[in-house]
Specification:
Blueprint (H helix, E strand, L loop, with lengths): L4 H22 L2 H11 L4 H8 L30 E3 L2 H4 L5 H10 L19 E6 L5 H19 L2 E6 L5 H10 L4 E5 L13 H13 L8 H12 L12 E4 L5 E2 L7 H8 L3 E3 L2 E3 L8 H11 L10 H4 L10 E3 L4 E4 H5 L1 H13 L1 H4 L4 H12 L5 E3 L5 E3 L2 E3 L4 H6 L18 H8 L12
Parallel strand pairs: 2-3, 2-5, 3-4, 7-11
Antiparallel strand pairs: 1-4, 5-10, 6-12, 7-10, 8-9, 12-13
Helix pairs in contact: 2-3, 6-7, 9-16, 11-14, 14-16
Length: 444
């Protein structure tokens, strides 16, 4: 049935009116904010006009506190060290005047979608990874995890160390992935090789014996250089000297949960010097005489062992023998100045002279753990039970179900290694006098 022209005009008017109303509604300040939150789109000016009637854009932690942390970019030309500053990062290094103006006109325009602003005061900290060029594809997985779960909000620096020169591919890929500044350092020869007092024939004989016993990495020379480097040198590399705190990251790890606070500032505020996620028993054949050397050292330097240390966690007979408990050092968040201090430095030098890095296969994990366990009061060691972590073959998964949901954890709580027989974490709780979470028995 044909309709009259008047009807058509009326219909068109109604449609146009409805469309106009819709556009008006969508363009209202509240919606612009909602849209920009959903799409992640934000740009200083655009947000400025809508900030007033939207919810606070920053959380407590992200609130600007003091003048911007303009950490000076020192010239570190030694050891062919190289620094790459990303464009996004240079935003946070702008001169103070530019930032102050912004603060005066707008209460809270964050420069990053979901990160801390340019006025955020970072801890004096960096990530650090020892790797070979060929580790790149196992390493990107780790970096992606750390960025997604933590560093995309904070943009901490990342130092990469290698006994060889990093190639361009390695540098380009890692620089693209890390949201902070990346730095690349070559390890000096004295820190990666046989010291002159080591009898290389004797070392070769050990490697052969260990190979026959099928001890993991028992026949490897490079693994021993790695363990010695991580035990006594990583914290003295020129690139590391400008930092106080570090987080060690290895290739092929997984972070299972969001980390919704600045762990470096947490270390600083709580005055912790060493943080771990997993602990276990060391393979005895790799450290046959390590504890004998530790005892010799303690006899010569009784002043270094502090009161209220973790001796009870390391030894079941008041220091007579080592029970082989150690923190798993592929994950560490710690204070570099502790390793650089007198007690640990003398300890490492002593162990290095003893030769066990080569005549046996002393690992950096027991060496660090004994150092931290004896020369730090136990109150300075922290168990990060909230950091979901995996390095083949063990998992740390937060016990508390609410935490796992809130932090979007991807770990199966049944895989939690920390309460199982081969872990030393239960013992750690006993020694610390900490109460175990109620669920622990069902998981042991
Ligand atoms: N530059 C360099 N890095 C190394 C070398 N060997 C090991 N690494 C690094 O040192 C760290 C420890 O080595 P891994 O091979 O992971 O040793 P692991 O954790 O005991 O054993 P996996 O079970 O194989 O992970 C990792 O960050 C490696 O990338 C080496 O010869 N050169
Ligand atoms: C960071 O820490 C290192 C080591 O403690 C120190 O030498 C350096 O001056 C610190 N840098 C800043 C900016 O505080
Ligand atoms: C795993 O064990 C640790 C203790 O070692 C505990 O704190 C953590 O909550 C446990 N997680 C689960 C899921 O059981
Ligand atoms: Mg590893």
């Amino acid at each position: 049935m044909p309709r009259s022209p008047a009807f058509r005009v009326l219909r068109l008017t109604i449609i146009l009116f409805a469309l106009g109303f819709l556009v008006y509604k969508l363009a209202s300040p509240k919606n612009i904010d909602a849209i920009s939150q959903v799409t992640g789109y934000s740009n200083g000016r655009f947000r400025e006009s809508v900030v007033a009637d939207s919810k606070p854009a920053q959380t407590k932690d992200e609130q600007p506190k003091e003048a911007p942390a303009t950490r000076p970019q020192e010239e570190l030309k030694e050891d062919k060290a190289e620094v790459k500053t990303k464009e996004s990062n240079s935003e946070s290094k702008e001169p103070a005047s530019a930032v102050v103006v912004e603060e005066a006109t707008s209460p809270a325009p964050p420069p990053f979608n979901d990160g801390v602003g340019p006025t955020y005061v970072h801890a004096n900290a960096t990530f650090v990874t020892l790797a070979r060029n060929e580790d790149i594809w196992n390493l990107v997985k780790s970096i992606r995890n750390v960025e997604d779960r933590f560093n995309h909000k904070y943009h901490y620096d990342w130092v990469f160390l290698n006994d060889a020169e990093f190639d361009d591919d390695f540098k380009e890929i890692t620089t693209a992935l890390v949201s902070g500044t990346t730095k690349y350092g070559k390890i000096p020869k004295e820190h990666w090789g046989f010291p002159e007092w080591i009898d290389k024939e004797r070392a070769a004989k050990t490697r052969q014996e260990m190979a026959e016993k099928k001890i993991i990495y028992g026949d490897s020379v490079s693994y021993r250089h790695m363990c010695r480097f991580e035990s006594g040198f990583f914290y003295r590399h020129p690139l590391m000297m400008e930092y106080k705190y570090y987080w060690r990251v290895e290739p092929d790890i997984t972070l299972h949960c969001d980390i919704d606070y600045d762990v470096f500032k947490f270390m600083e505020e709580k005055q912790y010097d060493y943080g771990f996620t997993l602990s276990l028993y060391e393979y005895g054949d790799t450290i046959t005489t390590l504890w004998d050397s530790v005892r010799k050292f303690l006899k010569a330097h009784p002043e270094h062992a502090v009161k209220d240390n973790l001796m009870e966690w390391l030894s079941d007979d008041e220091g007579y023998s080592y029970n082989r408990c150690h923190f798993w050092s592929n994950f560490e968040i710690g204070n570099l100045d502790f390793w650089r201090g007198k007690a640990y430095s003398e300890f490492f030098d002593f162990l290095d002279q003893e030769g066990g890095f080569f005549y046996e296969r002393w690992g950096d994990a027991p060496v660090h753990s004994i150092g931290a366990g004896l020369f730090l009061p136990k109150s300075k060691v922290h168990y990060f039970d909230d950091i979901g972590y995996w390095h083949v073959p063990f998992t740390n998964c937060p016990t508390n179900r609410e935490d796992r949901l809130r932090l979007k954890c991807s770990c199966n709580p049944r895989d939690n290694f920390s309460w199982k027989g081969y872990s030393c974490t239960s013992k750690y709780y006993n020694v610390m006098g900490m109460e175990k979470p109620s669920e622990w028995r069902t998981q042991s």
